[in-house]
# Entry
Amino acid sequence: MGGDNRSARVSLGEYIMQSETDVLVVGGGVTGTAIARELSRYRLDVVLVEKSPDVCTGTSKSNTALIHAGFNADPDKQKGRLNVRGNELYHERIQHELDVPIEWRGALVVATDESERPKLEELLEKGQRNDVDGLEILEREALLEKEPHLTDDAVAALWAPTAGIVNPFELTVGFANNAVENGASVELEAEVTDITKTDDGFTVETAKGEIDAEIVINAAGLYADEVSKMVGVDDFEITPRRGEYYLYDKQFDIDIDTTIFPVPTEVTKGIVVTPTDEGNLLIGPNAQEIDDKRDKATTRQGLDKVLNGAQKTVPDLTKKDVIKEFAGLRPAIKETGDFRIQIEEEVPGFINAAGIQSPGLASAPATAELVVDLVEELRGDLEEDPAFDPNYSGPPKVRHMSHEERAGLIEEDARYGQIICRCETVTEGEIRDAINQPVPAQTVNAIKRRVRPGAGRCQGGFCGPRVIEILSEELDIPMTEVKLEEEGSELLTDEIKQPLLEKSHESSEVNADD
Amino acid sequence: MTESRQAVTSDVDAMRREEHDLVVVGGGPAGLGAAQAAYDEGVDDIVILERDFELGGILQQCVHPGFGLEYFEEELTGPEYAQEFIENVAERGVDIRLDTMVLEVTHDRTVYAVNDEDGVTEIDAEKVILAMGCRERTRDALDIPGSRPAGIFTAGTAQRLINMEGKLPGEKAVILGSGDVGLIMARHMHLEGAEVEAVLEIMPYTGGITRNVVQCLEDFDIPLRTQQTITEIHGNDRVEGVTVQEVDDDFEPIPGTEYEIECDTVLLSVGLIPENELSVDAGVELHSVTGGPIVDETRETNVEDIYACGNVLHVHDVVDWVTEESMIAGRSAARSLQDRVETRKEPIEIESTAKLRYVVPDRISTIDPDREEIPLYMRVHAPMEDVFVTLSSGGEELTRTFERRAEPGEMVTLNVDSDTLAELPEPRLELDVVQREEA
Amino acid sequence: MTETVSITCIRCPIGCDIELEVEDGEILSLEGADCIQGEEYAREEFRNPTRVLPTTVRVTGGVLPYVPVKTAEPIPKGKLEAAVEELATVEVEAPVELGDVIVENICDTGVAIVATRDLPAAEEGPVAAD
# Structure
């Protein structure tokens, strides 16, 4: 496999980031990584900078993980067009190229009252105009046969077979790793602090040093307005809109096969009930505008709203068997309610990919395609790199193997025989693989996103200490420096006995003074 | 990494295949007790499968004293208690596989285990004893809203970190839950130089024993606040504090009682859940209250030849009872292997009144001439004083035991004479709790 | 001058709250104990409260970086903190056996600190506590 791993692996110390590049992508969410990967198809020097110690730590990590079919997309908006195209690209390319879980479970929009039927017809018509395949209205009987746990009140539903679910962590990591395998660089912990326009491009200051770039693509998610302001484009603002979720245990007696939406109203899109690629059930999100871009706290009111909303379509749901509650922030441009993917006319060479709220995940491959078009607009035709390999695989997934397959794998590599996370059946080999990927996992959550230890019902109670130990070993840092996610999220504060030694040291000093 | 898919190309012969009389899943106190008892009853082909690098289970991290008063009649620490049994199984030549995880137990007792030396082993077992123990309830299972920073640990995880890994999880802690683990962790944290701001308990009374309240909290002036709980956790990267609220009799937070505690760590000691995912996949039926398998007096589950004991069956407060119970399971499995027990034509169902939360076993289904008495384990719903636990059948009282004070946190045992069972008015036993005055 | 001291008995789950009336360190009266054991406990706990101290001591070259230990006998309650501070400076070498004396006389109490488990030496080099 190609690519220089070193640049991404070494984050501090003697390492110095390259000083110039053709294209600099700001932001390692699903949009930024999809763009970097699409650009790595061409003979271009591409660097992606991400402020956090991992990719996929913002909006991309906490959402409903859906590849929307596009029946609800407004064809007059950028996000509508990209959603439909994005869904196509997942079907045609992404699912075949990347070793990332994508399942075409289909979606239902369930009417629970005859008065909602006209809205179903409206969505059907809109979807047909968007060229969404296979849409049909299902009547109650067919509906309940498909999803027996649906409410008795269900009268009919719009069925969209092309809707899918995806693992957003593996997708983002897959885009990023594949980009690096194809020669792009991903620089973690490289927050952009300033951008200066120069004669032939930009000088970008980052936490890891300065870099000159001919083109800058801003995919900074929640912080896209701040990055844009650095070059003087300040006519939009990102408003964080928080959505909260409940995630259920895999071993759960309510089996849901498809993604279930209620009929949207003027006020709300309603709460979604959906399976995840790992067989958990996910419900959410509500929507609440907040001020703080870091405030991913769940609230009592929000979570209650999520459960009540989910019960509208699946009344048997309770808090029983919930294994996790979490919140995510959508980076919305309130004024337009749309994406803003464009070359900023007043700053040639600066491309914004901002305001990417839902359906940003579904649109990502199409967004990347569009951004490549914009780069071509700026630079002229791009030359394809014949060495580009769109195919990518992650570590083996021991949990999905048969016993025979596992036996075969362990015979070749014993590290896949040591299980670290028992809830999710994750082996030491997979964890070490995650740390040694082209874009390395360097935090406990980064490992969890890639290979799932701690994502199960005990939420890391048993495997947490082991994962910290392996990280400390592989990164060659003390266990007390291992982080959960961002700087300042170290999990362990000290070696035991140390505070006591300091204490007795202090008291002996006091005694000496006496 | 990209090679992984090729590596999977399966080689069916890579799997080891073995046959054993008894496979014990889990090498904690339950698994050890079961293996020892089965051996002593005459079975020598026994394998213990243990996921950790050593035997002893959670006892190894419980370095405090308080173990063994019933079984050894002396007070031991967790590791001391464990070591006794570890030596016993070693002396008996039990086949011990460490660092070995059981992936699956099938309905017909094929056990799949994995480790890095043998790869995957398929074991055809005559008898299987499930002794996987339990896991801790998490912040998420409690549904505490707020942020998700570093610094939130279950008490058991913190205990392992401190006592075995030698790492401090924080400097300033709030502990939610006053069960014994929570109390003991308060003392550990304090003695290691960390500050413990408070122990919060949602119930009106502590879930731990008095001795721990005195010796873990009062000794160090750590406040215990009952009928209070955490209603929000704050902090983006590391815990910065918690919002605490008083609760009413229905455990609902009382508006207006909120206050904040600044801390960098939250330890949760809020209950244990039997770890039965393997059992469920094997077709074992679980009890709605205990969360463990429904078993008869031999600790056999609804799946023939699969037994369960220890905390995977129901959460025990004292390890000595785990030992007693696992020995019942081990001995019974052995005697059944040797065809030394007779199955009752009709099992005796055991029922209880609403005053009891649960009773183990659920039924008595064998006749064993060498068994003098059968212990019934139960828990009351709420604290009660001066009560009799009575056992009757068809309205006729058979036996009773007096409890000066019965608490939900302490298991009550009532022994039934085997002879009594010979002539029951009906194949049903009823347990009740009556006040001394009424009785 | 007399004062009242409250002691919760820990001899059994009942946990009697016992009130002692004391003057110049002498117990004048004692109330609230349900049984004679409780009275004994309260007297002892007032005159000389003692505790078994469970903790850990740093080990080099073992399968774990710390070994659990305890005081072989209860030590005065007031010495618990000084004892853990003294033990923070102690380091032993693996292998350790259950019952091994780690410190002979902790904080001049005359009580030994003993290991409460076997801790074998690590096979592949020492496990360092970082």
